[in-house]
Known about the structure:
Elements lengths: L30 H10 L1 H21 L4 E9 L6 H12 L8 H12 L2 H9 L2 H4 L9 H14 E5 L14 E7 L2 H70 L23 H14 L8 H15 L10 E5 L12 H36 L1
Antiparallel strand pairs: 1-3, 1-4, 2-3
Helix pairs in contact: 2-11, 4-8, 5-7, 8-9, 8-10
Amino acid sequence: MSTMDIKPQTDAIISFPRPALSSREPQEIDLLALAETLWNAKKRILSVVFCFALLGFAVSLLLPQKWTSNSVITSAERNQLVPLNQLLSTVQVLNVDLKIDSGNLFNLFIKKFKSSVLLEEYVKSTPSLMSQFEGVNVDPIELHRAIVAMSERMRALDDADNKNGPTTPYHSWTLSFTGPQPEEAQAILAGYMRFVADKVVSQTMTNIHDTVMMKVQVEKQRLALDRAQLENAKEAKIKRLDYSLQVAKAAGINKPVYSNGQAIKDDPDFSVTLGTEGLNKKLEIEKSITDVSELNAEILNREYLLKQLEALNIKSIQFPVVNYQLSPSLPVKKDGPGKTLIVLLAAIVGGMLACGGVLLQQAVRSRHSPRLAAE
């Protein structure tokens, strides 16, 4: 049996493949070179910055102008409502229930201020606003769009909902309007607030007048009903006296029973204790009464009250419904970013784009330079 001799190759060198070294060494960013590149292109960069600044200035001129006029109001003070309180005291003495105070007036003012219908009425009744629409016949759709846009710029905010604002010991609201011009914004807000206040005063006076007229009608109807009841009671009383007289004649009672010293149990249905003479006299008196209210003090008092209500002359009076903590202000600062800020931001953006363009161009140029040298 043959065997195989295996000799170990100790002299052989086992080599492993090494990764090929990159011919390019990692390059570091040379800030001085970048600064030099930007400095060499300074004219182009400044030109782009200037163009963007002009563009920003043009955009600032084209942007719509927004100026906001503000007004802070609270409920009217007691001394401001003296004429109204005097009228209410005169009316309430006559048992007319009217629940009108400064709080109710203030809430009604806020309610009407937020009404789009009332704002449309204000626009239609203001010549300066209607003159902005071309032509005599205003397009209803265009007018509606303008009023909707205007209502979005007319705002009423409860200061109690502003948690970031200062705490005040009174309740106030901030009313505002945003317009294209400061004078116009102030004029529209002040005019609309006066318009709403006049509506509140008019509605309050109408409510007082209608309540008094309703009270007069109610008192007339109640008096007519009570008079009818008294007339029916009078007729029933006369019939009862007539029947009592017949009973007294049948019983032969001519004189009052108590005058003769006699004791008699009177009839519960038809009293005969007065005798025929007394019953005749009483029946004569009852028939002679033409006005059933002559002997009824309650009816007389109510008739006097009705006369006072009918004689009441409710004259239209003027009174403030709100108290101004801040009258409609003339805006001194435009809403949104100013022209300087827009130009500055445009110049910064232009400078960034210009520098980026120069650096990008230099990077492309440096990338192609080694290739051209190798070729």
